[in-house]
Amino acid sequence: MVKIAVDAMGGDYAPSEMVAGAVDAVNSVPGIHVFLVGKEEVVNSQLSRHTYDKGRIEVVNAGEVIATEEPPVNAIRKKKDSSIVVGMNLVKKGQADAFVSAGSSGAILVGGQVIVGRIKGVERPPLAPLIPTEKGVSLLIDCGANVDARPSHLVQFARIGSIYMEHVMKVKNPKVAIVNIGAEEEKGNALVKETFPLLKECMDINFIGSIEAREIPHGGADVIVCEAFVGNVILKLYEGVGATLISKVKSGMMTSMRSKIGALLVKPALKETLKSFDASRYGGAPLLGLNGLVVKTHGNSKANEVKNSIIQCIAFKEQGINEKIKESLGAVNQEK
Amino acid sequence: MVKIAVDAMGGDYAPSEMVAGAVDAVNSVPGIHVFLVGKEEVVNSQLSRHTYDKGRIEVVNAGEVIATEEPPVNAIRKKKDSSIVVGMNLVKKGQADAFVSAGSSGAILVGGQVIVGRIKGVERPPLAPLIPTEKGVSLLIDCGANVDARPSHLVQFARIGSIYMEHVMKVKNPKVAIVNIGAEEEKGNALVKETFPLLKECMDINFIGSIEAREIPHGGADVIVCEAFVGNVILKLYEGVGATLISKVKSGMMTSMRSKIGALLVKPALKETLKSFDASRYGGAPLLGLNGLVVKTHGNSKANEVKNSIIQCIAFKEQGINEKIKESLGAVNQEK
């Protein structure tokens, strides 16, 4: 049984979509138990609208909510009874294996480190969303709060990301690349130039060299290593350009009677194709390298993304990802 | 008369498209004179296919070509008779006002600094492409070779970019923003945090604060300031995600008979809409802050982009952009 705590209060569509996603997850896969963390009466009132196995969803009361705009360090320290702090404490105490939240990114990143805690040897826990590509999906590691990272951090990101893609996403011998502004080894900023030879020396990953941003949507690498500022820019721009272009396509189709009729005809096929470019179907972004798993889903998550984020936690637990990360770091430390 | 040197030999479709673009430019606007720089017999043979005013296009012989993969510093130093070096020397000597090339980016960036030379006071000449947005176009400054920039460089980029957008692109009081991973002033990496207050103090620009990558396609700012590594990632990803999505849309439309018929009907309207997201119609990326103008067009430029890049040089010269940059830097130095 994989036990997953879900933040019922965080996100633009909380609590309704968070609760609906939890119910959907329990109803669609066996072997999971969900703790819905939030204001008891609010969560119970939402739950009463659904049909599900009552033995598999438990409400855990948390009287406070951390708002998106609150300074994260302060919020985590002061709001001991918030859904994020209470949910993360369930993971810390081993009562839950994972915590899923669509709430404040900052609070989740801080709470992950401060409450759940890092695996011994992990220098900076990376936030690693899956991004859609032509070939499927790639792991973008790191998009978290670790700006101004050092080369040793990026090397850990490469190892951790490789383990995740291999065992959770079932990609054999995942290709690892570092984001760069040219394909040649001598290209790049100081950080990339220093990190490149270190990655080349890693015998436990399949390092294929640099990847230019242009190649990312083509799925040229399974694990895309970068520091968090660059990762954040990639993630946000990916979403921004995608949304803008799709809205352009839609409005373009509405400009004439002729094109409107055409739009009706292409719509079903187009919807199917564009679905493969929808990040939400892969679930949220795992914050990796913690004593447990924390998954950050989009702030605007609906039930489907919440459900997928919960299901994502099963493979993580069953495949023993954290044990594999520990082994990998241990092996590296012994080598030294 | 604005005199523009064009590299006839650089780019994937050189010399034919470079020559065709130059002819188109001369045929469509008055007041320009073009020097086509390249192997005389090759260029003349291309020119013989076109009709144009022979007094307005002059062939300047250059016996060598710098290949894309050549180490730039070496290439600029050794290949004195290459089209890039010969073309840039025309600018240096004042025989041409501008140089347009689709050749090796590295060689153009190095040549710009070494041959054409920086305006006194400009610390690092930025490469500043125009990127399409929902509202029109924004200037992304810097996408050049200046990785690991310092705050003072970014402040110059903001000033120079603002002058360009106001006087070449005719945007009144252009909004200047710095690329960041959150909207709040305390967010960002060390470079952004140091630069932010300096930009706030600039009285000569309309600084509106941070811009997240997600907002860039919406056209939230006219001048988007960032260091070159981040700028390069933005530019390349913009092109990559755009191309991938458009190919997805096209292939999605071809999946069923029904959608194929629909595709025929939406095609003209869609083409028109997507044209507004086509960067090539704005011409190439100016390398700013030099004693003259150097414009880098895409390696895969066709005649239309070459033509637009040439035309872009007219406003630059007529509006006295370099004089305005000098004034702006002079005013700043006096303040100090």
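The longest helix of chain B spans residues 228-253.
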